[in-house]
Specification:
Strands 2-1-8-7-6-5-4-3 form an eight-stranded mixed β-sheet. It is built from five helices and eight strands; from the N terminus they run E-E-E-E-H-E-E-H-E-H-E-H-H. Helix content is 26%, strand content 21%.
Amino acid sequence: MAQLIKDKQIVADTWLPLELGENDTAESIALPAGDVIFPFAVWQARKDEILARGGKIGLLIKGEDLVEEVAADIAHFAVIAVNFPKFVDGRGYSTASLLRQRYGYTGELRAVGDILHDQLFYLTRVGFDAYALRDDKSAAYAIEKGFSVFSDAYQPSTTQPQPLFRRRSA
């Protein structure tokens, strides 16, 4: 089970991620009770059923999923998990930025998949506030070192809309 960092602390993950098995389809998989993170395809295929079942709703977005297709639904999600299948796959950064800046998502935005402490500073800048670290990595070390790689940043970001030269002149 991945180690969850939220608000720069290690916390228990109370969400159940629904995973499609080899023989499952979005239309046929059983919908569990409780607080569930649903794959994008399941949400699209069974939105009305998911809303009717109760419990908090989460969404898993992969790199190939188009966030624009769920933009009108983001108020339903208590958590949106963005998958990073590989350390070098940067599509999740763009997804997070779109969710926060263009679509105004204010709930928990969670980075999942191949997440390392090296990414935490940058993930935070695009709007992530929760991180499911790989099992083979130390969450305590990530908290100590991952968020303080740089003391400041020149560029604007989701978390700091003013570039450094504007902040200095204010």
